[in-house]
Amino acid sequence: MEYEFLKSLVIVFGASALVVFLLHKLKIPSLVGFLVAGVIIGPYGIGIVKDTRSIEMLAEIGVILLLFTIGIEFSMAKLVRIKKAVIGSGGVQVFLTIVLSAIAAYFAIKNINQSVFFGFLIALSSTAIVLKSLAEKGEIDSPHGRIMVGILIFQDLCVVPLMLLIPALSGESINIMDVLIKMGRAALIIAVVLLSARWIVPALLRQVVHTRSRELFIITIILLCLGIALLTARFGLSLALGAFLAGLIISESEYAHQATADILPFKESFIGLFFVSVGMLMNIEYMFDHLLKITIIVASIFSLKIITGMFSAIVIGSPLRTSIHAGLGLSQIGEFSFVLAISGKALGLITDDFYQIFLSSSVVTMMVTPFVLQVAPSVSEWIAERRLLKKVRILKKGYEGEGFPRKRHDHVIIIGFGLNGRNLARVLKEAEIPYVVLEMNSDTVRDMKKKGEPIYYGDGTSKEILHKLGIEKARLLVIAISDPASTRSIVAIARSENPDIYIIVRTRYIVEVDDLRTLGANEVIPEEFETSIEIFSRVLHHYHMPRNVITEHIDNIRKDNYRVLRAVELPRKHLAEKYELLKEINTESYLIKEASKVDEHSIKELRLRTETGVTIIAVQRGDKVHQNPQPDFVLKRGDILLLIGKKEDINRAIEYLESDRFLVTKYYR
Question: Rounded CA gap, 544 and 582, in Å?
Answer without folding.
Answer: 6
